[in-house]
Amino acid sequence: MPVIAPLDTDSFVVFAAFLGDVAAFALGDGTVRFVGGSESITPVYQDGLLAAISGGDGKSLITGGMDGKVYRVTAEGAAELIAEKPRKWIDKLAVGPQNAVAYASGRTAWVRLKDGSEKEIQLPRAVGGLAFAPKGMRLVTSRYDGVTMHWITASGDAQELFWKGAHGDVCYSPDGKYLITAMQENALHGWRLSDAQDMRMTGYPAKTKSMSWSAKGKYLATSGAQAAILWPFTGKNGPMGQQPLQLGARGDSMVSQVCCHPKEDMLCVGYEDGMILAVRFEDNAEVLLRRPGGGPVSAMAWDKAGTRLAFGTEEGQAGIISIEG
Amino acid sequence: MSEATDTRIPVTVLTGYLGAGKTTLLNRILSENHGKRYAVIVNEFGEIGIDNDLLVESDEEVYEMNNGCICCTVRGDLIRTVENLMKRKGAFDAIIVETTGIADPAPVAQTFFMDDDVRKAARLDAVVAVVDARHVETRLKDTREAEDQIAFSDVILLNKTDLVDAAELARVEALVRKINPYAKLVRSERCAVSLSEVLDRGAFDLDRILDLDPQFLKKAEDAHSHEHAHDHEHDHSCCDHDSSCCGHDHKHDHNHNHNHKHDHAHDEHHVCGADCDHDHSHDEDEGLHTVKSISLRAGDLDPQKFFPWINEVTQLQGPNILRLKGILAFKGDEQRYVLQGVHMIVEGDHQREWKPDEARDSRLVFIGRELDHEALKQAFLACVA
Q1: Which residue among B186, B204, B222 closes a domain?
Q2: How far apart are the CA of B346 and the nearest CA of chain A, in angstroms?
Q3: For residue B363, what is the domain's CATH number?
Q4: Are B26 and B172 within one domain?
Q5: Residue A96 lies in a domain
Q6: Structural domain tally of chain B?
Q7: In the listed set B175, B204, B233, which residue is the last one of a domain according to the structure?
Q8: CATH code at position A281
């Protein structure tokens, strides 16, 4: 039976992650809460926190705020200032190889390298999303009408891929062969990078705001419908010509978050009414992990072993669900 | 949605040419002791003298929605800013968006209708234009934007009235009225107005569309009695707002398939009777400005005729329609049906029962460019039941 250790906050849960055994919750009010062992609160921003991601080292979070500051926050409660862009809202973040951190605001993206140097990238349109390629120091920025891939340390021209419409969150497949964006138009767009082949993934009734790769990159799970939509990336042509899995389908609530299990073919599905289900890919078997309440699920993360799930909602309810024991 | 249950954050859009006094008004709103907290989205920090926690500079990022409508443009940066502000829900009561002097107000307004997430979180309260009484005539001569801003507004703040004499003021006021007879016009010096004239207007709230008489005909302040609707079926009809598709298909092609149907068949060409007594507004163009308003009036309408027609008109002539408002009587329907639109976006709802002493008049008002008054009139009358 799943057991929930609740954590009540009164602020939007922007992001959750496990730093080793400790669960970290980044909140809209500017604090980061740590649960596991002793509970602690690290105030990071006065105005508000807009984005957070895992720090890449398994020990920290990277956060961006309304005051233009980017921090690396550790479970011990240390907040190291990485960058400061006065009067800019830092709402897009990415971590790359060798502790590189990318952040963006409006039409500018910056990359801070391990040695502390910073590279600035000016773009003609606003940055919709940021991601590093799994290999090589290469950053992709999404924008209106496509994406641009920039070499950060090596020389070489930026490469552009076009598709009409506004592109937001962007990610590479774990093998680096595909690039996927979530679009304003309730669709995903993908490119097979070997030949820039376009892939349209459509049919969503709402925007996709959460994407998660399953173990070994077999599926890309997405939100934006009344079921989690999982596109297969196993064949040579990715999802082209294949039907996606539709898991955890409900008639009365939309999926707001998806989070694939780190080892098994299973995922957690968070809904707009606050419910969380664990669903197995193979047979769509469902286990209720959390009853509805507390607003849309806005953040979810598994621990490394895949036995505990940290979650949070837009209305500030959070907690850790232990699946075993 | 009635106000009692509408917890969405109200948004006021401030437009106005450079130097008209937008910043003065904004500073006034922020410094006055009203107990409200505002999140303010500006294009440039510039002269904002007030220290405000939630003041954000945002590059106007206008883009087309990828649905085949050329006028379905939105402000991408606003979608993002509103989404970000929702992470601080509870830290502010309302949002004010200040646009650049030359901005077209339509993409800002359309953002609050076209994007589902924004629509869920925030509601457009009113578009307020600050107009410089001294320079507006010149502005109207050399720019289209100044005219657009006036035509699009719900509230027009005719500012710097102390810098013109009475005759000039009367002339300017008539000029503004000619472009937009339906907005609330407020005179001011240095933007010294009661904030209730500007904020919390509910101009896009269907429940508050009470009257479509031009404002200058009214003697007293507009009736502020809020009649609340009892029935709430929302019929949002928007171009290609097709959210019914749930089959996940996967296409592998290089082209866009716009399923935007433009039906060019004008099938209703009824001849209007010679004695139709709806009002005829003057629409002779004087060359100075090209925006005009068209007011149509009829009796009970046949919804089977009206809805296809209004959808067709807004799809075909959307780019020329800046604003659209209507109060309609449908045959056999006890309730008033209210309607409003921006370019191709139209939304409508039942508002309340017709009162016994109220004439069941159907009124429809268009503010726009290159609209054929006679053709619209004929087509509207063809919808009569």
Answers
A1: B204
A2: 19
A3: 3.30.1220.10
A4: yes
A5: no
A6: 2
A7: B204
A8: 2.130.10.10
B279 within domain boundaries: yes
Please give the single-letter amino acid code of residue A14.
Answer: V
In a domain, B233, yes or no: no
Short-list B34, B48, B39, B25, CA closest to B186: B25
Contact B248 A165 (CB under 8 A): no
Residue with tokens 């939304």: B347
User: Does B212 reside within a domain?
Assistant: no
Report if residue A208 sits inside a domain. Answer: yes
Mark yes or no for CB contact A244/B247 under 8 Å: no
CA distances from B29 to A145, B15, B22, B124, B195 (A): 38, 15, 11, 17, 7
> Which token pair is B345?
């976006």
CB spacing of B61 vs A125 below 8 angstroms? yes
Q: Is A20 exposed, middle or buried (0-12, 13-18, 19+ CB in 10 A)?
A: exposed
Contact B250 A225 (CB under 8 A): no
Whether A226 sits inside 8 A of B246 (CB atoms) is yes
B91-114: pLDDT as tens digits: 999 999 999 888 888 999 999 998
On whether residue A252 sits in a domain, the answer given is yes
Contact B91, A48 (CB under 8 A): yes
- pLDDT at A104 exceeding the cut of 90: yes
| Contact across the interface for B250 and A87, Cβ inside 8 Å | no
- Scanning chain B, the segments in alpha helix (DSSP H) are 22-31, 76-85, 105-114, 116-121, 136-142, 144-152, 166-179, 303-317, 373-381
CB A83 within 8 A of CB A69: yes
For residue A185, list chain B residues with Cβ-Cβ distance below 8 A: 65-67
Weakest-pLDDT range from A79-93, A249-263, B234-248, B278-292: B234-248
3-class DSSP state of B157: strand
Distance (Å, whole) CA A243 – CA A295: 31
Q: Which residues of B fall below an 8 Å CB-CB distance to A?
A: 45, 53-54, 56-59, 61, 63, 65-67, 76-77, 79-81, 84, 86-91, 115-117, 243-254, 256
Q: Are residues B178 and B288 in the same domain?
A: no
Question: pTM to 2 decimals?
Answer: 0.85
Residue A114 lies in a domain: no
Q: What is the pLDDT of residues B343-367, one digit of tens each?
A: 999 999 998 899 898 889 999 999 9
pLDDT value of residue A28:
96
Please check whether residues B180 and B279 belong to one and the same domain.
no
The distance of A275 to chain B (nearest Cα, Å) reads 20
Q: Which domain holds residue B22?
A: 9-204
- Cβ atoms within 10 Å, residue B62: 18
- Considering only the beta carbons, identify the residue of B57, B89, B250 that sits closest to A200: B250
